[in-house]
Design goal:
Shape: globular
Protein name: MerR family transcriptional regulator
Number of helices: 5
Pfam family, one: MerR_2
CATH architecture: Orthogonal Bundle
Radius of gyration: 15 Å
Structural class: mainly alpha
Number of domains: 1
Order of helices and strands: HEHHEHH
InterPro entries: DNA-bd_dom_put_sf (IPR009061)
Organism: Salinisphaera orenii MK-B5
Mean pLDDT: 86
Largest sheet: 2 strands, antiparallel
Length: 106
C-alpha cells in the first residue's frame, strides 16, 4: 500500500467509526499487535473494550496517537517507555495551553 492510500484509509477509519478493532488499528498505522500491546501496557493507549487482546477495540482517536508514537520512536529513537513519557508531557502541555487560552479570554 502506498503512503497516500494509508492516509486515505486512516482518514476513513477516523471519520466513519467511533471505535476500531486492534486489527484495523494495526493495518491503518502499519504496526504489529505486539507493539500496540506494549503501548497499552505503558498507558499510551487504552482499549475502549477491554478483555482478550484479540477483542480489543480502540477509539478512533487512537490512530493519530499511534502515528505520533511512531514518529517519536523513529525520529528520536525513544523506546516505548520514552514514548509514553513524551506523549504524557505533550498532553499536559496541550491541557495547560487550553487553560491559559480560557483564562486569557476572560
Amino acid at each position: 500500500m502506498s503512503r497516500d492510500t494509508d492516509t486515505v484509509l486512516t482518514a476513513y477509519i477516523v471519520e466513519s467509526q467511533t471505535t476500531i478493532t486492534l486489527g484495523h488499528l494495526c493495518r491503518s498505522c502499519g504496526v504489529h499487535a505486539e507493539w500496540v500491546q506494549q503501548l497499552v501496557a505503558e498507558g499510551v493507549l487504552e482499549p475502549a473494550a477491554a478483555g482478550e487482546r484479540e477483542r480489543w477495540a480502540f477509539s478512533a482517536d487512537s490512530v493519530p496517537r499511534v502515528h505520533t508514537a511512531l514518529r517519536l520512536q523513529r525520529d528520536l529513537g525513544l523506546n516505548v517507555s520514552g514514548v509514553a513519557l513524551a506523549l504524557e508531557l505533550m498532553d499536559e502541555i496541550r491541557t495547560l495551553r487550553r487553560q491559559l487560552d480560557a483564562h486569557q479570554e476572560r
